[in-house]
Amino acid sequence: MRHIISILLENEPGALSRVVGLFSQRNFNIETLNVAPTEDPSLSRLTVTTVGDDRVIEQITKHLNKLIDVVKLVDLTEGNHIERELMLVKVKALGAARDEVKRTVDIFRAQIVDVTPSLYTVQITGDAGKLDAFLQAMAPVGILEVARTGVSGIARGDKVLSL
Amino acid sequence: MELLSGADMIARFLQDEGIEYIYGYPGGAALHIYDALFRQDKVKHILVRHEQAATHAADGYARASGKAGCVLVTSGPGATNAVTGIATAYMDSIPMVVLCGQVASHLIGEDAFQETDIVGVTRPIVKHSFSIRHPSEIPEVLKKAFYLASTGRPGPVVVDIPKDMTAPTERYEYVYPKKVKLRSYNPVTRGHTGQIKKAVEMMLKAKRPVFYTGGGVVTGKASEGLTDLVKQLGYPITTTLMGIGAYPQSDRQCLGWLGMHGSYESNMAMHHADLIIAIGARFDDRVTNSTSKFCPTAKIIHVDVDPSSISKTVRADVPIVGPASSVINEMISLVQGHKIAHPEALTEWWEKIDGWRADREGKLYEPSKPGEALKPQEVIEALCRVTRGEAYVTTDVGQHQMFAAQYYKFDKPNRLITSGGLGTMGFGFPAAMGIKQNYPDDDVVCVTGEGSFQMMMQELSTCKQYGVGVKIVNLNNASLGMVRQWQDLNYKSRHAHSYMESLPDFHMLIEAYGFTAITVNTLDELEPALERAFADKHELVFLDVKVDPFEHVYPMQVPLGAMRDMLLSKTERT
């Protein structure tokens, strides 16, 4: 099953490599990875999506917790949560397809953020499924370049991941 | 307020931390530190002949004393040479702090002379690592390093020190930090009381219980408590290789150790048990054999200070995260005043176990006949007699390691010093050196083989320099015995590169360093040679014992089988 694990990490050089290294060292799997400093400059928030059965996920969270640089973590998929990913896509926009792309962008509630005579650059936010669906819809038109941030997430309700 | 250079802070910190010996090897990036050590006389630096030996020596000391060992190496090759020793300590959870010189900050990343990203290289084999970024950080970082290395589940910590951090011209305030805090590191100090109660209830109701305890009891200094608990309950106990001596092996309740080359009765008892009480052990593949066939009728209580060890390979029914000592003490107080529910079942259980014991009694190996080559097992039994079972025994890796663990009887913890997890050939001799320097009045013996010994034999020179009187028992079968055994069993005796051609004349080699060597060929010569070797505690003596090259280590679990599936000799199996 797919899990989203969010980690508060010491904002120290090398901290990220310990997390990433742990996954390869222990044969765990990283689907997406997203990391940036938080409002507290001494902490980074790292969100990783991974796939595994309960035993594997238990091992992943235990081993992550053992890393000295990991201050706190939560498996967001254990409760209700909001999951978002941002994607920038360059798609061909020539002739009749130009209008078709615009319509699809509207349907997906995406935005065109840059324009040239031959292509659109589209910005779209959503869960991974929505982004995948958009790419599928654009495939016949011609996708030139994709940049995805990887999943970020936060728990719904009063639950807060902080110190 | 005292102003010190980074290098002087390191020397001063080590004094304040109570470090007596530091093992190392100098080089460019570490020279400021070496100069600071030279200008003081409290911390004694031991100059090894290879950095790997420095880590093994510090590791040996740490295993014998329970305190963190300390190593100092230079950047680049100095640090990479230490890697095997760091990995060895990591796999066996041994507290160790390794100080590595590094090229000056402005050179980092430029492929400077003797530059290696040692923090990167060692990342998967350390508990944690630090890079010093300002000299003023040094006291606190070093304190954190020692604190992390020796608390919770212990392990090695690497501190990377760029040369400019130790420059003699830059001075900063030095205060010895008595305590440090890390917001993300709070090792558990006791187990969950509810879980412990549940475990004790199961323990009292068990009909076929077995204690299975490991290195965590030794490093957790919980041997006394364990012995109390096991005696109070009257249950059988088996230990892992790393846990040997945590419970006296000469006691009737001790079944020896378990796993791939564990005792027949240990493995049989585990397989038939209805309750396994695992403490400070990690269900390693050398213990469990095939996990799907592991102990089919048993419920499992698992106590470990490291939550990630619990349910890693075998699911625990009652997990308890906590240090062995406090959990055991709590168990003792809960057991007191209670009787076990099924004393008749326990009697039956012991009858069964005694039956297994009797099955193998006198059949463990075939002693040598007059005129035949010595059996390695005979050598270890004689060594145990001569040292009254009280020596610190270090081993290298292979058949001799298994024989030492099987035939020397350990009644105390921290006495068998062996690389269990990583299985590092070359570990034994420098480890013995580290122990002997710290325990000069005790007998310290390295049981080795001619293969392993040649991996670290340059340390004879270190022993000469510091007058280290370790004893070396070389079980010389002129082959890499364990490799050969596997080739006999799995490769139709095609001995690919397991034969040690061109062995040196060990007698001459040892004498070249000014030490005594004794060659032993027959059983008659064995005990007198051992007596001679141990006559003077401060003299290094090397026994080159020629043993039967065709001997195998048994029992040996059958791969992919259950605990009880064992080869018992070249012709018998369960």
Automatic annotation (TrEMBL), chain A:
Its EC number is 2.2.1.6. Pfam families: ACT_AHAS_ss, ALS_ss_C. GO terms for molecular function: acetolactate synthase activity; acetolactate synthase regulator activity. One of its GO terms (biological process) is L-valine biosynthetic process. It catalyses: 2 pyruvate + H(+) = (2S)-2-acetolactate + CO2. One of its GO terms (cellular component) is cytosol. Residues 4-78 form the ACT domain. It is an enzyme of class 2 (transferase). The keyword Chloroplast does not apply. InterPro entries: Acetalactate_synth_ssu, Acetolactate_synth/TF_NikR_C, Acetolactate_synth_ssu_C, ACT-like_dom_sf, ACT_dom, AHAS_ACT, AHAS_small-like_ACT. Keywords: Amino-acid biosynthesis, Branched-chain amino acid biosynthesis, Transferase. The keyword DNA-binding does not apply. It comes from the Bacteria. Dimer of large and small chains. Belongs to the acetolactate synthase small subunit family. Catalyzes the conversion of 2 pyruvate molecules into acetolactate in the first common step of the biosynthetic pathway of the branched-amino acids such as leucine, isoleucine, and valine. This is Acetolactate synthase small subunit. The gene is ilvH.
TrEMBL record, chain B:
Pathway: Amino-acid biosynthesis; L-isoleucine biosynthesis; L-isoleucine from 2-oxobutanoate: step 1/4; Amino-acid biosynthesis; L-valine biosynthesis; L-valine from pyruvate: step 1/4. GO terms for molecular function: acetolactate synthase activity; flavin adenine dinucleotide binding; magnesium ion binding; thiamine pyrophosphate binding. GO terms for cellular component: acetolactate synthase complex. Binds 1 Mg(2+) ion per subunit. It holds the Pfam family TPP_enzyme_C. Belongs to the TPP enzyme family. PANTHER family: ACETOLACTATE SYNTHASE CATALYTIC SUBUNIT, MITOCHONDRIAL, THIAMINE PYROPHOSPHATE ENZYMES. This is Acetolactate synthase. It comes from Vreelandella glaciei. The lineage of its organism: Bacteria, Pseudomonadati, Pseudomonadota, Gammaproteobacteria, Oceanospirillales.
